[in-house]
Specification:
Layout (H helix, E strand, L loop, with lengths): L6 E6 L3 H14 L3 E4 L8 H4 L20 H6 L9 H14 L6 E2 L4 E7 L4 E6 L4 E9 L21 E4 L14 E5 L3 H11 L4 E6 L6 E2 L7 H8 L2 H10 L18 H14 L15 H18 L3 H8 L12 E2 L2 H4 L5 E5 L5 E5 L2 E4 L3 E3 L2 E4 L8 H4 L2 E3 L6 H4 L18 E3 L12 H21 L5 E3 L1 H16 L30 H13 L5 E3 L1
Parallel strand pairs: 1-2, 1-6, 2-3, 4-17, 6-18, 7-16, 8-9, 8-16, 9-12, 10-11
Antiparallel strand pairs: 4-5, 5-6, 13-14, 14-15, 19-20
Helix pairs in contact: 1-14, 9-10, 14-16
Length: 534
């Protein structure tokens, strides 16, 4: 007799991963699946991140679904690097083309999940007050979706408007004739500052951590490129599947330090002119050899100094204290050039720390800055934040927050011991944020679908990671990361260092999406080794 349930599977989140997971379970596997989404529409991170200049750092023709050739043929991207508006239109297009809306509940935030051991099902509650029973839960909550809002003294006293790049309003924000303060110079700040500065009377940038950035060289896609692309989509996919980051370029074989200086400079300058994330792939060893990394780091610092005319600003912007690419490396459009504007002020808050926010602006230890608008470009509680906002209890009322009190532990980034039939898409311990996300998402969704299919075909009730396998995978993730320079940058959100009190554990898997895919496939082919099936 079939267990009385509301849905075979509940999916949390209607971004890239949740939408594809719904399609796979409903249309291909034929089970009842339903998405619960806190927002009023689809889009995930691209629904919330509407800030000025919001743009993807993966190239448009690779930042999309490849499981459907029909989607690839019907949609046409307009730019090399798509903006937020275009990506959101694409996700709405995919949702409507696949007829997914009827199985999505919008404005429904999941607040609690409890595993009922006697029934082998999950009891899921939303903020609507309703509860639902389901056999499987798939968390598609996103890696960069829980906004990090700093609690600066006096913030409630500010008379002007305050915005966070990760929760930008839907209505237009007008900067004309306004004095704007921007706190944060990570990816979102680097994208937003040049656009805000186009119309604001004055922009004051409060910089704690100077950052590298590579010019995006964004441009409109030609009709010839689009036409050619549509005849070679399988070739593009093959390139992405072979690469460690899910991008359409091969990993280089040359080592930076060992390459003769003249040849090295030619390679670096050519990559700088081409722009984009491909600059990281000039050489093979920049994340494993500090000597090679120093060469690339100094190259970028020299570019900053030659771009920014004011010597003090140039020094403040290029005084970067971490190896290149050990924090997420942004790409930009006229970021450093923007500091040549007289209306753009740069404040080094390491030298002159923030003191508080007062009714008319921001104060540092030495100076007051009158402002009409404050923009927090302070990023996210990455990879775990959105998941831990949900009160999740597994076997024996084990709480996920307690399990992860010392940092996230997973098996393959897919499951946690003690939480049967609960999957994560691009969770901590998987390549996730180190990749072109749609490629990581498709790999995870397809693996989870095959796993659930295996359970259904073999009349199995549950699957969960074993404690031993989870421990072994966490050790492997750490060992792999420690072979690189990545964990050595202690103030990185890859470790959770941007969130006060968050355990600092390196979260993504650095072994490459191509190698990770093989590991996951082998585990499934061997009968799901490391998992307990019952």
């Amino acid at each position: 007799m079939k267990q009385e349930i509301d849905f075979d599977a509940i999916i949390i989140g209607a971004g890239f991963s949740g939408l594809y997971q719904l399609y796979k379970l409903r249309d291909e596997l034929g089970i009842s699946a339903h998405i619960f989404e806190a927002a009023e529409d689809v889009g995930g991170t691209w629904y919330w991140n509407r800030y000025p200049g919001a743009r993807c750092d993966s190239e448009s023709h690779t930042y999309c679904y490849y499981f459907s050739d029909e989607l690839l043929q019907k949609w046409e991207w307009s730019e090399r690097y798509p903006g937020q508006v275009e990506i959101l239109k694409y996700l709405n297009f995919a949702t409507d083309h696949l007829k997914l809306r009827s199985d999505i509940s919008f404005n429904n935030k999941i607040t609690n999940m409890d595993f009922l051991e006697d029934e082998n099902i999950w009891l899921v509650r939303s903020d609507s007050g309703k509860t639902y029973k389901t056999r499987y839960v798939i968390n598609a909550v996103g890696c960069l979706s829980s906004a990090n809002k700093p609690n600066i003294p006096g913030i409630v006293n500010f008379n002007g408007d305050i915005y966070h790049t990760g929760e930008w309003p839907h209505e237009e924000v007008v900067f004309k004739n306004k004095k704007v303060g921007v706190i944060g110079t990570g990816s979102s700040g680097i994208q937003a500052i040049p656009v805000i500065a186009e119309s604001a009377e004055k922009v004051t940038v409060f910089q704690r951590t100077p950052n590298y950035s590579i010019p995006a060289r964004n441009q409109k896609l030609t009709d010839e490129f689009v036409k050619n692309f549509k005849t070679k989509t399988s070739e593009w996919l093959e390139k992405m599947l072979l690469s460690r980051g899910g991008h359409a370029w091969p990993s280089p074989s040359e080592h930076c330090f060992d390459t003769p200086e003249k040849e090295r400079l030619e390679i670096l300058n050519a990559a700088w002119v081409a722009g984009g994330l491909g600059f990281r792939e000039c050489f093979d060893d920049i994340l494993t050899d500090i000597k090679s990394n120093n060469i690339m780091s100094d190259f970028i610092k020299d570019k900053i100094k030659s771009t920014v005319k004011d010597p003090l600003k140039a020094e403040t912007l290029s005084n970067i204290d971490h190896p290149f690419s050990t924090k997420r490396p942004p790409i930009d459009t006229n970021y450093f050039e923007t500091f040549n504007k007289k209306s753009v002020e740069l404040i080094d808050i390491r030298a002159d720390p923030l003191k508080d926010i007062y009714d008319n602006g921001i104060r540092t230890e030495s100076t007051s800055f009158p402002l009409d608008i404050i923009v927090f470009a302070t990023g996210f509680d990455a990879m775990t934040g959105s998941l831990l906002k949900i009160d999740i209890k597994g076997r024996s009322k084990l709480n996920l927050r307690d399990t992860w009190s010392g940092g996230p532990q997973t098996y393959l980034g897919l499951q946690v011991a003690g939480f049967p039939n609960m999957f994560m898409l691009t969770g901590p311990g998987s390549p996730s944020v180190l990749t072109n996300m749609p490629r990581a998402i498709e790999q995870h969704v397809e693996w989870v679908t095959e796993c659930i299919s295996h359970l259904e075909e073999n009349n199995l009730k549950t699957i969960e990671a074993s404690s031993q396998a989870m421990k072994g995978w966490v050790e492997h993730v750490n060992e792999t990361a420690n072979k690189t320079l990545l964990p050595k940058t202690k103030h990185s959100w890859y470790l959770g260092a941007n969130i006060p009190g968050k355990p600092q554990v390196f979260m993504p898997y650095t072994g490459g999406l191509n190698n990770y895919r093989d590991i996951c496939d082998n585990i499934a082919e061997e009968g799901y080794t490391g998992f307990i099936l019952s």
